[in-house]
Amino acid sequence: MRDEFEGSAMDDLRQKYLGLIAETADEATLEDLRVRAVGKKGEISLKMRELGKMTPEERQVAGPALNALKDEINAALAARKASLADAALEARLKDEWLDVTLPGRPRRQGTIHPVSQVMEEITAIFADMGFSVAEGPQIESDWFNFDALNIPPEHPTRTEMDTFYMANQREGEPPHVLRTHTSPVQIRSMQAQGAPLRVIAPGRVYRSDYDQTHTPMFHQLEGLAVDRDLSMANLKWCLEEFVRAFFEVEKAELRFRASHFPFTEPSAEVDLRCSWVDGQLKVGEGDDWMEILGSGMVHPKVLEAGNIDPKEWQGFAFGIGIDRIAMLKYGIPDLRAFFDSDLRWLRHYGFAGLDVPTLHRGLSR
After folding, report:
1. Residues 6 or more apart from 132 whose CB is under 8 A from it?
2. 273 - beta bridge partners?
3. Of all helices (H) and strands (E), which one includes residue 269?
4. What does pLDDT average to over the chain?
5. Following DSSP, what letter does each residue of 74-87 receive, concatenated?
6. I need a surface site. Which of 75, 86, 96, 335 has the fewest CB within 10 A?
């Protein structure tokens, strides 16, 4: 009779707790049921304590039955807990749902500044002719910026009206300036590499001037070739090839006018044959001439400053205003707009970042 009674009591406990577990709606209530059923003072735990009062025969029957009941209740509790966690997660996902297929903010694609683009174009052209790129500091001693380039102390460009001098010079050190041209890079390249060499030196330069065609900071490119038996004919061919490739025309006609630069002898301003039709520049045709750069044969004193013997070596050099030829090629009317950081201007005149200029694909596409 006792076995039947115990079996009936365990069936009642099973039905009771399995029903309550199935109806539980939250984890807090489920935890309370666990304590009531299988906790230290739970009903099933108290039943297991009664095993010590039973005979061995009764324990052999009741013990396994109680353990099975305890395992069944624990399994039901674990299953219900997992089910409640899944339901809570589903509800949270429903409340915090976001349709990731909806279009987001339009992607803002940056553009390459015309100055950077033109620098890359020029570099590609002269690299094809065997020139390497050289760089130098933007703060130079006046020896590199003036003396080494055969610019005398009384030259007007050395006054503070034209040149930015650095303040707080250390005692005993030569004055330092914001470089007024990239020509000092030529001296540094000659001293470092010797002859022969072919280099271009693009970079920022600084002069005290500001109007529609001048800014205090602008970009310039210097070119230098040093070898035996170089002449003005080599210089002329080099510049013609550059102009033809840069403006992407079949023919380019240049005119050399005698001029004077302290660092070259002889010196020449270079004019380009062109025409203006409806405000558009056309290169290689027409009756107009436009000055585009200065050039000449490197002065012997400049070669000596670069530790090159002028009796054995000759060289030619040229200087190009990068901002100015960018204006000419791409029809930009005001130089000051280059440095205004106007996003509308940059989007209009800018270039795609992946369109790297090359000669075989075309410089500007």
Report:
1. 198, 199, 200
2. 289
3. strand 264-277
4. 85
5. HHHHHHHHHHHHHH
6. 96
Instruction: Report d(CA 156, CA 163) in Å as an integer.
Output: 10
Domain ranges of the chain: 2-95, 111-351
Q: From its phi and psi, is residue 150 left (phi > 0), alpha (psi between -120 and 50) or beta?
A: left
First to last CA, the chain: 101
Q: Report the distance separating Cα 353 and Cα 355, nearest Å.
A: 6
- Report how far residue 243's alpha carbon sits from residue 254's, in angstroms, rounded to the nearest whole number: 9
Q: How far apart are CA 150 and CA 363, in angstroms?
A: 36
In the chain, how long is the greatest CA-to-CA distance?
132
CA atoms within 13 A on the CB side of 326: 27
pTM: 0.66
Q: What phi-psi label fits residue 344: left (phi over 0), alpha (psi between -120 and 50 degrees) or beta?
A: alpha
pLDDT digits (tens, 9 = 90+) for 50-68: 777 778 877 777 778 878 8
Nearest residue to 207 (alpha-carbon basis) of 147, 145, 267:
145
Decide if domain 111-351 falls under CATH 3.30.930.10.
yes
pLDDT-derived band of residue 220, with 50, 70 and 90 as boundaries?
A: very high
Integer Cα distance of 289 and 275 in angstroms: 8
Q: What is the CA radius of gyration of the chain?
A: 43
Q: Is the pLDDT of residue 3 over 60?
A: no
What does the block give as tokens for 155? 């030259």
234 SS3 class: helix
Joined together, the tokens standing for residue 23 give 């109806």
CA-based nearest residue to 365, from 117, 32, 39, 87: 117
Find out whether the peptide bond into 300 is cis, omega within 30 degrees of 0: no
